[in-house]
Amino acid sequence: MTPRVTTENPTGIDTFDHTAVVHLPEYAEASKALDALSQASRRAGDELEQSRWLEVVCEMSAALPFADACVECSGPVPIPAPYAAVVSGGRLDAHYRCPSCGFTWSRAHELKLPEFAE
Asked: This protein's superkingdom (predicted)?
């Protein structure tokens, strides 16, 4: 889905059906997390227009397979997905920030995802 915000449909929502995953507890948690991010953005004065918000959420989802662990932290910590990326020449050059210690780093990935390989 490529979200499109239009005058006739300012939500950017097309017809969809999440029946296959709605029963999973993670589905509800993801919804809560997105709502919390939206509210935090507003509190910080960084509220995004609807079309940009939908782009951010789609980009975040697409970047999940490229999550990477922080080399500065030890022990169980969240493994972040990239916060920024450039795709060029069959590679994804990703930029990360550790949610635990704030360390930032970059890493290049080949654009082949095992679950999408032929």
From this structure: Bacteria
User: For the whole model, what pTM was predicted?
Assistant: 0.75
Strands 104-110 and 84-88: unpaired
Q: Which residues lie across from 107 on neighbouring strands?
A: 94
Contact (Cβ atoms closer than 8 angstroms) between residue 101 and residue 72? yes
Instruction: For residue 109, give Cα distances in angstroms to 6, 21, 82.
Output: 34, 28, 11
Question: DSSP 3-state assignment of 87?
Answer: strand
Amino acid at 81: A
Integer-rounded Cα Rg, in Å, for the chain is 16
DSSP state of 7: S
pLDDT averaged over 10-residue windows placed end to end, the chain, 118 residues: 77 84 94 93 88 89 89 77 92 92 92 58
DSSP-assigned letter for residue 47: P
Beta-sheet strand order (sheet of 91-97): 84-88, 91-97, 104-110
